[in-house]
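Final report, closing paragraph on structural work. Over the funding period we assembled a curated collection of sequence-structure pairs, and we close with a single example.
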Amino acid sequence: MKVWIFVVILVLGAAGRGAAADEVMDVPTRDGVTVRLALTIPASPSAVAVLFAGGHGTLEIGDDGTIARDGNALIRRRQAFADQGLVAAAIDAPSDQFAENGKMADGFRESAAHVADIRAVVAALRNRFAVPVWLVGTSRGSTSVAHAAIELTDGRLDGIVLTSSIGVDHRRGGNLLNMELARISVPALVVHHEDDNCAVTPFAGAVEIAARLTGAPASELMRITGGKRGSKVCGPVSHHGFRGQRGKVFAAIADWIKSH
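Its predicted structure, as stored:
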């Protein structure tokens, strides 16, 4: 496992913030369930990055491609992936998870139903674009990505990226260190700020997550430093969300995807 140390102190603008997607895609998954994607599409895509938000996991993607809940750092900076030649596919919660307060239920990210949804989404995107499909998650979104990568062993998934991942037990679940990470058999990149002060996402957890990816054909830890602190340490405007350096960080992630 190679470890990157990535230092950025440049404060970047908010290009793409609030912008509508180029295309909305509704994918039928389980019986009576659909998953909506907001696609930002470059001229000649080399891969697809399916972006999983943290927190409650719902984006409320409108019919016109606007995203009502786009405060998540990964979703807000989706244009950074498209600028690097990747289709940025922001994924919403499945239709049956909007019933209670518009949030995914605790435990759903590690359910068989969620894996079935993701399997259908990956197949639809591969059919639509005919390029490799990667899953990229941040915070609780990394729980979705890691669990799916463990279960999807049919060769249809091409790689994963885990950013600001949960590495501590919590009442809502989601700790990646409780998963069988050695079963992940696709390239895997772990990205984490060394000063992430969120109680459930310490940097030490990311180091251990990366060390356990022994079944991945390629795995690396991208260690982020610099940027700006924030008062809400588990939110996007902090080191947890790579405040002040998202464009550079996500461009580096896109480069890693393209090189693997």
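The chain has six helices and nine strands. Confidence is low (pLDDT under 50) at residues 2-17. We thank the funder for supporting this effort.
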